[in-house]
Amino acid sequence: MNLLDKFAAQRALAASLAELGGVAPIATPMDEIHSATCATIGGRRTVLAGTNNYLGLTFDAACRAAAIEAIETQGTGTTGSRMASGNYASHRGLEKELAEAFGWPACMVFSTGYQTNLGVISALADTGDFLLVDADSHASIHDGCRLSNATTIRFRHNDPDNLDRRLQRLGDDARRALIVVEGVYSTLGDRAPLREIAQVKRRHGAWLLVDEAHSFGIFGPRGLGLCEDLDLLQDVDFIVGTFSKSLGGVGGFCVGRHADLDLLRFVSRPYIFTASSSPASIASTRAALRQLLDGQALRARLWKHAERFHAGAGRLGYRLGSRTPGPVAALVFEERAQAQSVWQALLDEGVYTNLMIPPATPAGVSLVRVSLSAAHDDEDIGRILAALERARG
Ligand code: PMP
Fold first, then answer.
1. Pairing outcome for strands 366-371 and 106-110
2. Which residues are catalytic?
3. pLDDT > 90 fraction of the chain, expressed in percent and rounded
4. Are strands 106-110 and 252-256 parallel, antiparallel or unpaired?
5. Is residue 193 a part of any domain in this protein?
6. Checking CA distances to 370, which of 3, 103, 282, 318 falls within 20 to 30 Å?
7. Are residues 283 and 109 in contact, defined by beta-carbon separation less than 8 angstroms?
């Protein structure tokens, strides 16, 4: 067996995708991007209902202008890590703005959301510590655990009793345990039972990190996420977010109620050994953050679409991944072929969604993941629902 033989399954997958002809359902090529909600795919103008552009800010005039000005005044890239030559005033400025938004003393900005989880989880929990992680967590959380020297313990998805039992077994060591959950889960779009998880955390004296990648900008009066919405910020130790969804940029952040979060700068390898985010991305993110914090109108539009879609898809008989409406609405199928045929039918109708298949999905289900945006208009939602009705066959 040689070095490359192990890729037989991937070779077969690539060949089967090539055989399909037409537009690939994985890494779908976007030929031209016209707006936050419209692109040309396979030669036709298509409604984008499978991005993470929840507030639709990627084409916002102020965000674009800020990015252009940053390129003109600071250049295209920093060519260095935050710990070397890439620690610009704008990176520090964004950290200060995020910390102030939460009223917390510390914030670290990373180059991507993925690296944020990698860098924060692996550095916070070290030898002798414990990571209690929801089994359905995003790959970046699981990879952060792998990079850490701590002992990782998975608990059943959204099951606070299961978490409670696992912490119970740790006894006094629960005070060295970091619980890691997401606010809204990225594949099924379901929400964590954060109130119950916070209670378990308090009972055992453990620590809590919530990844609000899919809830920042969407929940809470100021858009700070599900913890703000549920009035739980005082129970949470660290919140992770990304710039690549509601904020329409690239990068990630961790805010902490403990000033010591700042010390991670000296030990977190995914923070130290990579170039910092480009000035353009930091600048557009700062402009987007201002709009997000003052974004009640954007949130109201997004929620109107999310509720209409959830009710409409349910009426059409689709099984949804979450009982409650939200920015992520996953249509769940037992058979991969069914999901693929619905995905294809939607694309043929000019609607782009995400096809997600095992092993990238929980419980081996196949999904057509629909995501809503404040930049959609009523007509877009009508078109997506009409396409779903025809795709039902
Ligand atoms: N956390 C969660 C829950 C995510 O869904 C994602 C991205 N899908 C990330 C982190 C990583 O963020 P980014 O794509 O900005 O690296």
1. unpaired
2. 52, 138, 182, 186, 211, 214, 245
3. 94
4. antiparallel
5. yes
6. 282
7. no
From 353, 369, 252, 368, select the one nearest 28 (Cα to Cα): 353
Tally of domains in the chain: 2
Position 20 scores a pLDDT of 77
Query: Using one digit for the tens of pLDDT, what is the confidence trace for 227-255?
Result: 999 999 999 999 999 999 999 999 999 99
pLDDT in tens, 295-319: 999 999 999 999 999 999 999 999 9
Whether 157 and 31 map to the same domain: the answer is no
Residues 229 and 155 in one domain: yes
The contacts of residue 338 (CB under 8 Å, 6+ apart) are: 366
Examine the domain organization and report whether 104 and 189 are in the same domain. yes
Which among 201, 322, 313, 320 is positioned nearest to 257, based on CA atoms?
201
What is the pLDDT at residue 17? 80
Domain boundary among 271, 293, 315: 293
Mutate to test the pocket of ligand 1, among 117, 143, 242, 245 (most ligand atoms within 8 A of CB): 242
Q: Is residue 8 part of a domain?
A: no
Q: Enter the pTM of the model.
A: 0.97
CA–centroid distance, 243 to ligand 1, in Å, is 9
* Structural domain span for residue 329: 16-48+296-391
- Cα–Cα distance measured from residue 268 to residue 275, given in angstroms and rounded to the nearest whole number: 14
Same domain? For 77 and 128 the reply is yes
Q: Are residues 108 and 216 in the same domain?
A: yes
| 3-state DSSP assignment of residue 368 | strand
For residue 185, being part of any structural domain is answered with: yes
Compute the distance between CA of residue 348 and CA of residue 46 in angstroms, rounded to an integer: 9
- Are 26 and 88 members of one domain? no
Share the mean pLDDT of the chain.
97
Q: Measuring from atom 1 of ligand 1, which residue has the nearest CA?
A: 213
CA dihedral of residues 109, 153, 136, 243 (deg, nearest 10):
0
Tokens of 64: 């674009």
Distance 215 CA to ligand 1 centre (A): 11
Residues 227, 354, single domain; the answer is no
How deeply is 144 buried, as exposed, middle or buried, from its count of CB atoms within 10 A (0-12, 13-18, 19+)? buried
Residue 129, domain member (yes or no): yes
Q: Looking at residue 339, which CATH number applies to its domain? A: 3.90.1150.10
Do residues 280 and 301 both lie within one domain? Answer: no
Peptide bond into 362 cis (omega under 30): no
